[in-house]
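Human
Can I borrow your eye for a moment on a structure tokenisation matter? Give me a protein, with the fold worked out from its sequence. Write it directly below this note and I will take it from there.

Assistant
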Amino acid sequence: MGHNNTTSAIASKTQASTRYVSGDGGSIEPRTSNLKQTLAVQPLNVAEAVVQMLENLGIESAHGVAGGAMATLWGALSNSKVQVLNYRHETGAAFAAAEAYFASDCPTVTFTTAGPGITNALTGLFAARGEGAKVILLSACTSAPQRGRWAIQETSSHTLPTDGIFTSGTLFNYAITIESPAQLPQIFRRLALGLAQPGGFVAHLSIPTAVQNTPVDSVVIPQMTTNCSSMAVSENVITQTIQMLSEGPFAIWLGFGARHASKEILELAERTGAAVMCSPRGKGIFPENHSQFIGVTGLGGHGSVMSHMQEQTPLHTLVLGTRLGEPTSFWNPTMIPPGGFIHVDSDAEVPGVAFPNAPTFPVQCDIKTFVQALLDRLPIDFPSTSTLTLPNPEKDEIKEATVPLVRPEVLMEAIQKVIVEGSDAIVMAESGNSFTWSTHCLRFPEANRYRVSTGVGSMGHVATGVVGAAFARKGKAVAIVGDGSMLMNNEINTAVKYGIPAVWIVLNDARYNMCYQGMQMLGMTGADATMPETDFVMVARGMGAEGVRVENESDLESALVMAMKSSEPFVIDVMIDPNRKAPSKGRNQGLAALGVKSTPTKSTTEQISFPNI
């Protein structure tokens, strides 16, 4: 990288031939800024220079809520090539920015004003970091002369902790407050390198209000060429992997980090006969209708996985792109193969953490690069386990209706038919029972069509993230959400403003039903998880969207078809039976294992889904 090549001023940066190669194998090409026309009249200010740098880094969209403290920065964004979407709440904007990244593989920006603008966005950015998104937060902060003087929405060490919010750490891969134009070259370099690395990258640039207007006269930006290719893997590692896999039957355990290697993983599985399972976030990376797919692990997963691990225990498990955390594994010792794990991840800190007592052969590598290298070296006569009879995910019998409301299982059947099989829409499931019903019941034949957040699991993530996903893919994205999440945070109004064809399917049962059912299954009483019933069709229409309420199962398919045909934002308000037990037993057993005391009832002894113990 040409660190010392500083011959070009920022005013001519738009003509640079820099090419940034992303960790996913794509490239980010610099584009000519709309701001270029202003250069002959006056120099850029800091806000305009930052926006121009973002354009050069391939940023195409910005999602946020503005305010007086960031007026100059907001103006620079709004007059650039970056598409600016103005939201109703910073948390929703941050969730939308993260999901826009996943829908497009293009880095995004979220922006906020000072004070509560920043703190409101933190939950969404926390999720972005945990999910592996590439998102840059642009915020305003109080200028130096006003700090400590009770400025409006003061943002300084007098009012907020600086560690972790304005400094690099567990929340931000990179964070800095811009106090001078002289910082811009190094900031540009750090952003370029961060966005080019494999995996996620979440950054925070906070610019004091006065600094946003500071002219950029003599500062120069280095000419950079960042050739950051995917992580390579040594021949010795591949040789050792092949040796271990050839010692006996093995299984493949997929996570979201393997989503760009679906073709290579399918070839590996078919050449070796290995059983394939996936995390909830990994649904569809390996076709769920394939004979070698044995099910989803973790929350909302399938008992077929446990059947295989107990009855046809593999010697090794090849783990590709999953942290094996609680939502994926419940840290169940049954999932530990006798020969241990071969754990591949781009993050060197991941292998061996979830199961610290299990033998683990760690490999730090991009998943696609690793599997390609494995296929290139895999012997033609590699011993196949195709003679094994593998269990496939169970299709639970739908029990007879007991009340005149929609059974969630029947709703999932309709979603499978109309949306999963009848369209190419992204389907997103909110945390709670929406997550477990969708993960357990839906089957995806291809990758990158299902999105859930398992690590953070924030309510409102999907209810707002669906707007970013639909916007980025310029097509349908469907959110399966609970009524609690829709009341907590939604961006229907934003979708209406920009004509974004997002669809919300609301499981309306007038309660936080995962909490309600969970307390019942743990034998606890007295806690109130109910809420007044809400008419979400009226809410949608009040904001300018379309909507329909479904009270009868016979109306499900027609309502879904109507929503998918609509070019406008659309809400389907489904009155579901609140007493249908969601497939979440593993979560409740996990809580019990952590010390939450329970009084066993009949329901806690029935296997509902992927068990913990």
